[in-house]
Amino acid sequence: MEMMKEKFAKLLLGEDMSGGGKGVSSALALSNAITNLAASALGEQKRLEPMPADRKAKWRKEIDWLLSVTDHIVEFVPSKQLSKDGTSCMEVMVTKQRTDLQMNIPALRKLDAMLLDCLDSFKDQNEFSYVSKDDESQDGRNDDKWWIPTPKVPPNGLSDVTRKWLQFQKDSVNQVLKAAMAINAQVLLEMEIPESYIDALPKNGRASLGDAIYRSITDEYFDPDYFLTTLDLISEHKILDLKNKLEASVIIWRRKMTAKDGKSAWGSAVSVEKREIFEDRAETILLILKQRFPGIPQSSLDISKIQYNEDVGQAILESYSRIIESRAHTVMSRIEDVLQADATAKNPSSDEVKRPPFLRDSLRVSPSGRFPNAKEEIEKLNAVENPTSMTLLDFMGWTVEQGENDTKKDLKEDINIDAKRPPNIVTKNKLSYLDNLVGSRSPTAARH
Question: Where is the PRONE domain (predicted)?
Fold first, then answer.
């Protein structure tokens, strides 16, 4: 109880325990608290093994404290109420938890529990292990994840049962990842763009993108795959820089399209139809980057939104979904490490066993030197080798009848799943994050 009082006192003071009034907003304080809790309780998942019991208990207890704030974020809704004698009925306003929180907080809790259960399932496995640092015969990993322990499998590889079980775990974590990404992206979309970010924008898209990129995007014939092959995207910094430029240009073009006075600073001499085409092209590239490189940090727009956001509910949803997304991505990467070691053991004469583009730790193009087609890439992300594997709805015990049908339709579009549908996502504005591949109406960003 004393620990909880101290934690909430710090949150109320905006992390300024001096009482000098220099603390951050309550929304940012809660967002930072969830992020810091995840760093201290969860740590970095270097192996496929259960979380220590003390750290798991700490995570569950303290995340419940922070999520309890959402129980008191309510909205007024009409409700019919009978009189005491039952002869008349009147409509009164009552309070209930805000709709987006009512639907998404339970879904995120379930996704969180699914990840913990997945790690717990590796407790009794004995077919693969990890090379000890003291093993002198092991040279260690040669890739950019050299600090991650190298998995060790039997000389002939894993058994068929274990391999199928690993694939099953990978499929279920993949569903968790997609659901968390969709929730996080939708929350970020609904956050207001800070004035400080807008004030720092250049006044036209050419200045934001640079002449070369601007000419490519505004050309009469535009192919996003060919466009990406012309860019140098071999490092995380360059990919993030491209995302920042594209997001800034989208905001600029939107403001130009909505400017009422053509003489204003945001007025535009180009037609609205062309601006919409440019915006769609930029967002298509952003979508491809998000799907291809899910591990890159937050963009400048996302960081600015989180920093200046004052909606406590959105802050909690964003930070909690971001933590789950990051953990799911890490678990997927660890599973891929074991599957890659198994494939190498079965076929030692082959060169490096390639991972799917979705989980490559290094930021490279395909072996052929060409970026895969966007639609083909998304199909690869949704491909499941085991046709009998369970969907996220099967794991969570939800039926198609639960929730609002329109909401489920929005979510299905959001994460581009044809046959598998993750948990319901309800947002205040009923906006779809990924309306379709080429018509997405919002900047995209991914976090890891």
Answer: 1-352
